[in-house]
Structures are given as C-alpha cells and as structure tokens.
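just leaving the lab so this will be short. what follows is a protein written twice so to speak, once as letters and once as structure tokens for the fold. can you read through it and tell me how you think this chain folds. thanks a lot i owe you, the record is right below.

___
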Amino acid sequence: MGLINAQTAKAYGCRVIVSEMIPKKIETAKAMGFEVIDCNESDPVEKVKELTEGIGADAVIVAVGATSANSQGLEMLKQNDGRMLLFAAGYPVPELKVDSNMLHYRKMELIGTFGADHEDFKEAAQALSSKVVDVSKLVEEKKFPLSRLQEAYEEASKPGMYRVSVMLDEE
C-alpha cells in the first residue's frame, strides 16, 4: 500500500520520499522514480531532514504497522503544521507514543483512516484505469491449486508477499 500511496501523492504534485527496508521494494520504488531511503543503510529520520534541508516532511504516510515506523514518522514531520496519516494496522498491535506537548506546540495532526465510500472507490478506479496509479509492478501474485493449500499458507506468511491465491477450480 505504501507505493500506491506514494503514486497518489505524486499525482497530486507532492514531492515523495519513500522509506523502505525490504530490498525488492527499494528496487521497485527506485524503478518508479521515487527518492528512496534505504533504512538498512541510513537513519530515515536524519535522511528526511537532510533531503529537506533541515525542514522535515509536510506530511508522512505510515503504510506499515510497526511501532518504529510510527515513531520515525512523528520525528520526520516539520516543526509546525505537520500531518501524519496512519494507514496500516499491525500485529502485534503497534504502539504510538506521543508527547502531547509536541502535538500541541508543533500543531501536529494525526490522522487515522480505514474504509472508503463510493466516491473514493470511483476516484481509485479512475486512477487505476488511467495509470495515474500503476499497480502492475507492485502485485506479485502467486497462484496455487487447492491441493497445495498448505504451501499457499506458508508462502502467504513470508515477509513481503503481497497476494497468494488459491484456485478452487484447478488441480
């Protein structure tokens, strides 16, 4: 979902910096033309500040459910009027530790989101059909016949796997 959000933000004219730690996703983000921070090589908070000449991000979309991502997202925000959108759940449940004074004095906004209405669906469908948002590089689908259900479950549990389908009509 992170790179879908990134494409959408870019379509609206935003400068997008992607922070990622999975090598395959780093390659994909670079191939899509995004500025990419490899979290394995540098501190994403420091790198965002460097790339924004010390200002920080106007907005951060946290698209992975992890306590560390939540903390880094808050730290990446600019001094005043920064917004952080929490777009992902996580298991185990990630924490969001917030200094209420920081929220108050820096006028930060935290936004949680879940679900969509008909208008959102129409807008998303238009973005997909016009290729403003291109998911062809993002969806790595693996298909398994029903007879290999256990293998499908094992594959689905691997980090970075997006979609595993079990075909009911194939053997």
